[in-house]
Backbone:
């Protein structure tokens, strides 16, 4: 049995080495060897394997610890189901034999479970696979591996990024969705374009279950660091406060009080939040945000505001509203940077053009509609730098089969 004080002292020393050691060619290998040598008994870690992403495969680059009787694969396709779990979650313990990133390990006569973490640089990704021997404790392994993963990722990124603003942009980007959720019967696409290194827009998805999906899009007044800090707090607050069967109005009203008390120079946020059921029924709250709209054929339905912007008053009145997303219809949620973009004559793109563009392209897939809108608005502004943060989410309900 290991001594907790000694364990945490050694673990703290490991995290310091991650922050202080030079990030050269052998940086990851040296850190992983440190993990193996100093924590193999306390965390029940056997051998380690480090895979580097090369094209559409993971290639084995380092082996640490004793070789197993059955060798690990030299290459693993990125599309492998087990690899996808690690890419999605950041870490994963494969304690069920039906799916494993290292089947050879799971098939050994002696007890062994693979655990994997995703390590990210600015231009490179690795997956480290650990062998967990009998006696491992889930809470201890999960905490330790995730702490190591976070420290490595932060160090690799911070070394590649030179300015505080660029680091802030990286943090902000990490809070935005990596990919659109898969929601049966729907296509979903989203993108945010900041006018400065960091932006004051946010969007996010809330995957409650297979039958219910939450979507939000918000816009903080101002630009730069103050707006970015505010939308960071908004995003975190929504993730913490929104749960299935929780009242969305209550959550947003509590969030309003937090924003109102904040000391940021930019402290007003318009926010649209909706919950979509699989059959197309949708409830939403629109806190002073430009009205999203639904398109089906030539019919356009605006989803008007149901209350004031957040942060303007200590208490605000909000109410829910309802609509139906019919089959073969498209919902567009956006920030004002899109329709307020100017051309060389000082004309605005305007919501009217945005609606006409969606009507014209509604038969296309959601991702294509999103790309067309961004391309057309960018061209309208004569390919100049974006004047305002611009964010767009396109949700298309497919035809019933």
Residues:
């Amino acid at each position: 049995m290991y001594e907790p004080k000694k364990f945490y002292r050694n673990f703290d020393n490991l995290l310091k080495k991650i922050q202080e050691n030079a990030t050269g060619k052998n940086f990851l290998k040296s850190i992983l060897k440190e993990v193996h040598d100093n924590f193999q008994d306390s965390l029940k870690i056997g051998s380690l394997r480090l895979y580097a992403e090369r094209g559409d495969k993971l290639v084995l680059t380092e082996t640490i610890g004793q070789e197993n009787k059955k060798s690990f694969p030299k290459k693993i396709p990125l599309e492998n189901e087990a690899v996808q779990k690690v890419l999605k979650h950041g870490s994963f313990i494969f304690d069920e034999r039906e799916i494993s990133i290292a089947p050879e390990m799971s098939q050994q006569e002696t007890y062994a479970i693979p655990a994997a973490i995703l390590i990210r640089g600015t231009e490179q990704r690795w997956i480290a696979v650990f062998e967990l021997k009998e006696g491992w404790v889930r809470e201890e392994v999960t905490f330790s591996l995730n702490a190591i993963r976070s420290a490595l990722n932060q160090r690799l990124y911070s070394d590649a990024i030179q300015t505080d603003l660029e680091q802030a942009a990286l943090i902000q980007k990490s809070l935005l969705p990596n990919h659109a959720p898969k929601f049966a019967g729907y296509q979903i696409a989203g993108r945010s374009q900041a006018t400065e290194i960091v932006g004051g827009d946010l969007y996010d998805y809330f995957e409650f279950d297979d039958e219910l999906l939450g979507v939000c899009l918000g816009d903080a007044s101002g630009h730069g660091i103050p707006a970015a800090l505010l939308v960071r707090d908004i995003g975190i607050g929504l993730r913490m406060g929104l749960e299935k069967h929780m009242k969305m109005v209550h959550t947003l009203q509590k969030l309003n009080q937090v924003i109102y008390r904040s000391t940021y120079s930019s402290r007003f946020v318009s926010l649209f939040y909706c919950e979509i059921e699989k059959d197309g029924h949708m409830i939403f709250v629109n806190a002073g945000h430009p009205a999203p709209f639904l398109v089906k054929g030539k019919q356009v339905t605006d989803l008007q505001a149901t209350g004031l912007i957040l942060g303007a008053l200590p208490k605000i009145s909000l109410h829910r509203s309802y609509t139906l997303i019919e089959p073969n219809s498209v919902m567009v949620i956006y920030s004002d940077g899109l329709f307020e973009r100017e051309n060389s004559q000082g004309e605005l793109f305007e919501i009217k053009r945005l609606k006409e563009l969606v009507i014209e392209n509604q038969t296309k897939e959601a991702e294509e509609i999103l790309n067309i809108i961004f391309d057309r608005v960018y061209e309208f502004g004569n390919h100049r730098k974006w004047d305002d943060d611009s964010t767009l989410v396109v949700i298309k309900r497919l035809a019933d089969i």
User: Anything to note?
Assistant: The chain has a mean pLDDT of 86.
